Amino acid sequence: MINPATGETVADMALAQPGDVDAAVASARAALRDWAGATPAERSAVLAKLAKLADEATDVLIAEEVSQTGKPVRLAREFDVPGSVDNIDFFAGAARHLEGKASAEYSGDHTSSIRREAVGVVATITPWNYPLQMAVWKVLPALAAGCSVVIKPAELTPLTTLTLARLATEAGLPDGVFNVVTGAGGDVGAALAGHPGVDMVTFTGSTAVGRRVMLAAAEHGHRTQLELGGKAPFVVFDDADLDAAIQGAVAGALINTGQDCTAATRAIVARDLYDDFVAGVGEVFSKVAVGDPHDPETDLGPLITAAHRNKVAGMVERAPGEGGRVVTGGVAIDGPGSFYRPTLIADVAESSEVYREEIFGPVLVARSFTDDDDAIRQANDTQYGLAASAWTRDVYRAQRASREIHAGCVWINDHIPIISEMPHGGFGASGFGKDMSQYSLEEYLSIKHVMSDITGAADKDWHRTVFTKR
Ligand code: NAP
User: Fold this and answer.
1) Quick check: pTM over 0.70?
2) Does domain 232-412 have CATH number 3.40.309.10?
3) Where does residue 449 rank: exposed (0-12), middle (13-18), buried (19+ CB within 10 A)?
4) Closest ligand 1 atom to the C-alpha of 190?
């Protein structure tokens, strides 16, 4: 594993082979019965202990997360790690809350009741951008529901997932419930996604790979949950607080060096505010401190790999050919590490690559709109539907934007914050199903209807619909 800021080796990691996936799935299957049969309170106690141990291991988790991803240490300390600990804690509590319809005599002749049962063995595949949070978002609701898990973290960033599994064992999670296979997506990931021995496949990553994973799971009819790419619109109406919108755009676009599926990527700004917005964002972008992610003064770390930086740079270089105007940035920084300056591209065409495709780097593109209908139309002019924001002081505009923008999350006068109690998940090419919140727990539970006769009669009324003579 390579530190993307320095090019130095962080750790050597064994690469699993597809045969190891068989062993991990068998281990998860063997452990399932007892874990699914534990009481909610027993599961909750283990997860609460895990939250405590993860909190105590904060410094280790931060160090691993920064060195494997290159994310600024401030972000890891104030967002990734405390957010993950809180999420673990949330699912420790959620494990004890199974919801359903009340048992009742709906037919008059039977008592109907609902059981919530663990789906079974869950295969999980996660990306490199928020390795710890993505592992927690997938594994914790599964464990809370009583499932056992086999997770394959991204080959580039397995460290914090392995630490999480080690802490779970220390917290008392029985052997075999939480299995990690390190390795590459093309072989180990594919073997896991298409494994006949699992019951469900959950995935976070790109839309293209997510669809491949879904196809592999469909081969066996397995339940899937997909959190995929995004291209979030950031809509600034003409009554918005311009300063707040400028600051929000900078933070929303540059978080995690823009390698964030919900990042603000398409600024769609009222014509009257457009020039000032572009000038304001351009000015703050040019002052952002790019450098050593271990330094608490650093705002922006490197991109994950040189190959990824080349992809981002290539998209920016092609933008002027499609009408875009690079206001600031568009420059790779020399030296070790895959650094790239914050980049603002104005006046982009709706058909242009940088407007339509996920860039996944510190790049914001901007366009103006004429009226509210045009703003909503542009916001929705995308295959993605993960997140969006609307900036306005008019309550009716805010309500309309939250109603009409097609995305799994719409922020009003902010962009990015998430919270354990509320769901995260997309529409359209951004996937389906939810991470975080009680909704996510439900992804990992099957609903069973138990219908018990209460008449004791051998000759039941409804039999006459089938036969009359005996
Ligand atoms: P990716 O290339 O799709 O990889 C995601 C995971 O899938 C990695 O573990 C990867 O393994 C594995 N993989 C690759 N090919 C596979 C295959 N054929 N079968 C099974 N697994 C396979 O995504 P990424 O580049 O890591 O992450 C960036 C993407 O994730 C962006 O599109 C971003 O928007 C999305 N994302 C979405 C959310 C969300 O909540 N919606 C959150 C975070 C990120 P290796 O990398 O080890 O080869």
Assistant:
1) yes
2) yes
3) exposed
4) 19
